[in-house]
Amino acid sequence: MTPQPSAAFNLRAYQPQDLPALVALFQASVNQLTAPHYNAAQRQAWAPEVADMPAWQTRLAPLELLIAEDGGAIAGFIGFSLDGHIDLLYCAPSHVRQGVASALYAAAEQRLREAGVHTLHTEASLVAQAFFASQGFSVQQAQTVTRGAVMLPRMLMGKTLERR
After folding, report:
1. pTM of the entire structure?
2. Rounded to 5 degrees, what are φ and ψ at 157?
3. Closest CA to 124 of 91, 92, 98, 157
4. Nearest CA-CA partner of 145 in 136, 158, 154
5. What is the third-level CATH fold of 9-115?
6. What is the Cα 50 distance to its own chain's centre?
7. Residues 69-110: tens digit of each pLDDT
């Protein structure tokens, strides 16, 4: 059963002033939540201590981004494109298993349905694989991405949206 979202958070569109908090959440999420599957070198390659903010701005620019906010703090975020690619989905370590990711994903899927998208895909970390499977995605291919000299395993996953 999917946890119900907390009534304490709301979803809103990303604003450029969210960038520092969004990147800090990303770094905390990678460093605190992925340790069972990724070693310290992998986590550092994935989420370096010093973030390249211009690179983040470039990466986020083509995406639609939704923010889950709890008491004014960012509890999670999702970034996706209207071709059906779910690029980013991260939750603050303090908000794991509270329905944040599920609410963000549901809102993104609704937006993609409204845009006429029928097929979704994502490159899921080993940590996120179970979440995406719970949302109806299936593994299409195991992949490895290289960051510097460090290899990170991930899964290409896809989902066909049922017509409503």
Report:
1. 0.91
2. -125, 150
3. 157
4. 154
5. Aminopeptidase (3.40.630)
6. 20
7. 998 899 999 999 999 999 999 999 999 988 999 999 999 999
